[in-house]
Amino acid sequence: MRRFFSYYTPYKMLFFVDFFCAVLVGLLELAFPLIVNLFIDELLPSGNWQWILFASAGLLLVYAFNTFMQFIVTYWGHMLGTNIERDIRNDLYAHIQRLSHSFFDNTKTGKLLTRLTNDLMNVGEMAHHGPEDLFIAVMTLLGAFGVMLSIHAELAVISFIIVPFILIIAIYFNKKMTIAFRELFSRVSDFNHMIEDKIGGIRLVQAYANEDREMDNFRKLNEAFRATKLKAYKIMALNTSSTYMLMRLVTVFILIAGAYYTMQGELTFGEFAAFILISNILFKPLEKINAVIELYPNGIAGFKHFTEILREVPDVQEKENAVPLTDVRGHIEYDNVTFGYEAKKVLNNISLTIHPGETIAFVGPSGAGKTTLAALLPRFYDVSGGGIRIDGTDIRDYTLPTLRENIGTVQQDVFLFSGTLRDNVAYGKPDATDEEVYDAIEKAQLKSLVDGYPRGLDTVVGERGVKLSGGQKQRISIARMFLKNPPILILDEATSALDTATELEIQKALNLLSKGRTTLVIAHRLATIKNANRIMVVTNDGIVESGTHEELLNIDNGKYRALHDAQYRFS
Ligand SMILES: Nc1ncnc2c1ncn2[C@@H]1O[C@H](COP(=O)(O)OP(=O)(O)OP(=O)(O)O)[C@@H](O)[C@H]1O
Fold it and tell me: 369 in ligand 1 pocket by Cβ < 6 Å?
């Protein structure tokens, strides 16, 4: 709760103005019953029209003032809520961005989507309505009770006898609603995850003609969602209707007791009428309390989810005294490196040295750990044993952004953002000029593609680059790398999606790019890495062979030779 209230701190002024106006709005509602009292007991018997008009004008003024206050409460109150919602969302997104790859390996994107949208909207509503409505309600109840007391103490107490019961019922249902909404939240999250997954994979669904099966799954989830929602609404309906009944009991109590006291001469007709009207005003704060009680579980569940993610500590952390990685020579050492994904051990005591400017290729069977070996260098994951050094310093001693700025990775799965060609290429250097972007595009053999589009660099690539071919996407990621210009390169199957002719051209470009840079190449097609300074064969037993293409071919019964023979057997 302390964390929640800390979000109000920057908006103290807004909060107090909103609160003040809200209380005025609540209390000024009491003007009407009081004026009615005055009308019936004083003004009507006197027959003085001047006073009647004067009192009516006074009431009109109160209403005009209250209208203005209403505007402030509704607009500024929601401004407070939306400001807090925005701040929490910014904090959450900033934190999510800092989390490590392992978190994303194990977290559904749909869940994060729910956290960032639905959950926080509920938190925003609670932030605004929660304290404000409760406070208005309490103040209006106290104000009403005070006015009632000043008119007739006994009747005031009778009128309020039921109020505690209404509050007890509200608290009882609040507990039930909290549980129901927690379940509902989890369903929304499942739902978002499914939509994200299945709509993202719609091409696969259609290719396998699996629409009916997916529709069945969707129906089941949708039905579970409906059932959970209905459960929550049932509790809500029970709460609203029982509160309604109790509130109407208050009116009946006042009617009976008020009639009695009026007949006894303890109450004037005007006071009796005022009591009845105040009992109607009482409903408003009680309904507000009820509304907060309905809102609260949503908001609290949303905020709890937010704090859960905030408590996630990134596996990969920057040391306090980390230094920036600058003037990189590109000397890399893997020293007895051990690593595993959770329980699964992938790398065992790997040691290797890569000299500045060298191109080292990793080949070997699928799943042996080549990609993992490279992913440890930019610290997407941290080693569980041993260490990796760049230019003699452990990579954990460098600041994370400078380490990653100096390492460029062209991956097997190219991710393009929905946007233009320019946006995607310039992602490597957001402040790049058009000349620089064109230069990178030319080097990545993309010029003819860009020139072929009427809108050139402003061509929209579609979600995840769906309007481009695999080879084109790969060349865009290579163009990005030309712009980023890092001293250390990781090319993970960088040319795998290219036809042989384009591959040769790109290979030339990549050779140019890797000149003077330390380059780690992961490749299955041996033709692309023949000229590497050294080739390492990685298997489940670690690095089993190392040498130049020729040296490795000459090893009798060698693994590299076997891979080579298998690839060239039919050529
Ligand atoms: N994020 C992950 N979480 C858990 N296990 C993983 C993860 N990424 C890879 N693995 C596992 O680690 C092992 C090594 O995977 P890696 O991708 O490094 O192999 P690779 O040699 O690059 O394979 P390929 O040549 O097919 O790309 C595999 O068994 C794989 O299933």
Answer: yes
Segment 406-431, tens digit of pLDDT: 999 888 778 888 888 888 888 878 88
Euclidean distance between CA atoms 440 and 434, whole angstroms:
10
Asked whether residue 209 falls in the same domain as residue 306, the answer is yes
Verify that 293 and 396 share a domain, yes or no.
no
- Does the C-beta of 368 come closer than 6 Å to ligand 1? yes
**Which structural domain, as residue segments, surrounds residue 51?**
2-311
pLDDT at residue 392, rounded to an integer: 93
Q: Both tokens of residue 13?
A: 């002024």
Task: Count the domains in the chain.
Answer: 2
Q: In the chain, what is the greatest distance between 2 CA atoms, to the nearest angstrom? A: 122
User: Does any ligand 1 atom lie closer than 6 A to the CB of residue 144?
Assistant: no
pLDDT digits (tens, 9 = 90+) for 205-243: 888 888 999 899 889 988 988 998 898 889 888 988 888
Q: What is the 3-state secondary structure (H, E, C) of 3-62?
A: HHHHCCHHHHHHHHHHHHHHHHHHHHCCHHHHHHHHHHHHHHHHCCHHHHHHHHHHHHHH
| Contact 341 CB / ligand 1 (< 6 Å) | yes
Q: What is the CATH number of the domain that holds 226?
A: 1.20.1560.10
- The predicted complex's ipTM stands at 0.94
Q: Is 105 in the pocket of ligand 1 (CB under 6 A)?
A: yes
* Same-domain status, 304 and 360: no
Structure tokens at 540: 């489940």
Residue 375 lies inside a defined structural domain of this protein: yes
**Residue with CA nearest ligand 1 atom 10:** 341
Answer whether 372 contacts ligand 1 (Cβ < 6 A). yes
Atom 1 in ligand 1: residue holding the nearest Cα? 105
Output the DSSP codes for 76-90: HHHHHHHHHHHHHHH
62 and 135 within one domain: yes
Angle between helices 153-160 and 120-151 (to 10 degrees): 150
Tell whether 417 and 281 lie within a shared domain.
no
The DSSP H or E segment spanning 370 is helix 370-375
465 lines ligand 1 (CB under 6 A): no
| Average pLDDT of the segment spanning 60-76 | 91
- What is the residue with the minimal CA distance to atom 24 of ligand 1? 366
Lowest mean pLDDT among 37-46, 175-184, 438-447, 507-516: 507-516
> Ligand 1, closest atom to CA 372?
18
Ligand 1 pocket test: pick from 342, 348, 372 the residue with the most ligand atoms within 8 Å of its Cβ: 372
Measured from the CB, is residue 370 less than 6 Å from ligand 1? yes
346 ligand 1 Cβ < 6 A: yes
323 is a domain residue: no
Domain final position from 255, 277, 311: 311
Q: Which sign does the torsion angle of CA 390, 396, 397, 403 carry?
A: positive
- Is 456 in the same domain as 552? yes
Indicate if 522 and 450 belong to the same structural domain: yes
